[in-house]
Amino acid sequence: MSSLFIGGDPGVRGALVAIDGSGAYVGSLPLAKGVDDAIFGAPIIEWFDSMLHIPGEAVFALEKAQSGPRQKPSAMLNYGEGYGILKGVAMSYGLNPILVRPTIWKKAVLRDLPHDKGGAICYCKEHLPGLNLRLERCRTDHDGLADAGCIATYAWKYLNNW
Question: Which of 160, 109, 121, 151 is nearest to 4 (CA)?
């Protein structure tokens, strides 16, 4: 049985969130504070190092990249870059990412909540109280952290038998 569940949102305001085998928040890493402040490379590797010291197996669920009908090509390119980096780093640690479409994890985790960023934020505030969605000097909650928290929860609830 797995003891660590990591959720990854590879978007421009993406994040990584880890929860333990009881569904409690363990740690997080916002990947960007703004379009030009993307955090890639060493911080992601350091974060995986710090999370994977927990004994037992880990499951990594990553939001599957897909373009929206009104999405600009440059936005999809940025999303794909984050997706590739997260997938590559996870695989270098021996984690085979489980790819989850947004419609799947939203239906499973958010249930009666709105299936949007606001619903994910609401869910995390209630079910992952240790996850701080408000970054320093920010006035709004980080929706990438909320999405990653929901994806980690999806892995914990529905992929726990893997």
Answer: 160
